[in-house]
């Protein structure tokens, strides 16, 4: 490995889908399910990592997809319901936060 970490997040809708897949999970529900760790949360919020964290604005750059097939790689994501989403990305991407726009129907 090159020591470079790539995180790829896909948000492919223009409007939030209906539940149950996109229901908000409120703190009350988390507590009712027994998943809330009050002591752990207090320790996390008092940690130096949280207390010293400085929020920085993030600049996004448009990521063009080359037309030349030799310059792109094809990927697939399996969605709920066994649907597949195919997309292409440039083989070479500069570090940063990028934005991709797909045309409707792609």
Q: What does this entry look like structurally?
A:
The model has no long low-confidence stretch (mean pLDDT 81). This protein has helices at 27-32, 38-45, 48-51, and strands spanning 60-62, 72-78, 84-90, 97-99. The protein has 106 residues and is an alpha+beta fold. The strands form two sheets. A two-stranded parallel sheet has the order 1-4. It contains three helices and four strands. The longest helix has 8 residues, at 38-45. A hairpin with a 5-residue loop joins strand 2 and strand 3 (84-90). Helices cover 17% and strands 19% of the residues. The two termini are 32 Å apart.
Task: Identify the notable features of this structure and list them briefly.
alpha+beta; two-stranded antiparallel ribbon; single chain; 106 residues; 17% helix; 4 strands
Topology, pairings included?
Layout: H1 27-32, H2 38-45, H3 48-51, E1 60-62, E2 72-78, E3 84-90, E4 97-99
Strand arrangement in the largest pleated sheet: 1-4
- Biggest beta-sheet profile: 2 strands, parallel
* DSSP helix fraction: 10-25%
Please mark out the parts with pLDDT under 50 across 5 or more consecutive residues, or reply none. Answer: none
Q: What integer value in Å does the Rg equal?
A: 19 Å
- Estimate what percentage of residues fall within beta strands: 15-25%
**Tally of helical segments:** 3
Give helix and strand order, one letter per element, not per position. HHHEEEE
Question: Mean of residue pLDDT?
Answer: 81
The class by helix and strand makeup works out as alpha+beta
* Distance between the ends: 32 Å
Total number of strands: 4
Rough outline = extended
Oligomer: single chain
């Amino acid at each position: 490995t090159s020591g470079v970490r790539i995180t790829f997040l896909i948000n492919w809708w223009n409007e939030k889908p209906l539940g149950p897949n996109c229901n908000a999970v409120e703190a009350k529900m988390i507590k009712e399910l027994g998943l809330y760790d009050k002591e752990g949360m207090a320790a996390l919020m008092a940690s130096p990592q949280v207390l010293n964290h400085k929020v920085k604005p993030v600049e996004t750059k448009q990521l063009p997809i080359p037309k030349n097939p030799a310059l792109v790689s094809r990927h697939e994501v399996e969605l709920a319901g066994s649907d597949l989403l195919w997309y292409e990305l440039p083989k070479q991407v500069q570090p940063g936060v990028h934005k991709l726009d797909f045309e409707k129907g792609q």
